[in-house]
């Protein structure tokens, strides 16, 4: 950011000819020269993280049981306070892991009413369409799922006979799953959260 401010922004005619713009540029340069811990102490409208106004705030509910596994997917718009049906899953699914990664929604594993599955499907909101991608190495329902450093992690779960300690990661750029270090304990119905660049299980 500092190089961009000096080499590009500072050379813009609008910046050079407007004192208010110059003041903002100087403020930005000073901000980027500070160590990270000192930057965090500066609180004003220009240092506040922005939320893109063009992206709607929505919640997607994928599959479930009613009372058997279902394909239904619904979307809740917080601004409109309204539920809408969107494209159904390719197959019945409950107890799946669901994450948002690289602009798409992933439904990972789950239970189809008869078997725990390895299936993974991806929802593209622009096309309102689900697409099946590479399956996991192991069948998993009631698994934990999280995204860290552009990898999707499938953690633990239940394969139909026992709880799992294994963990898999998915690289969407090459459409491949691979095993990573297993947990020390078998876990089903596990929660996963990402904090400061690490996956935490609970």
From TrEMBL:
Keywords: Kelch repeat. SMART domains: Kelch (SM00612). InterPro entries: Kelch-typ_b-propeller, Kelch_1. Signal peptide: none annotated. It comes from the Eukaryota. Transmembrane segments: none annotated. Pfam families: Kelch_1. GO terms for biological process: protein ubiquitination. This is BACK domain-containing protein. It comes from Micrurus lemniscatus lemniscatus.
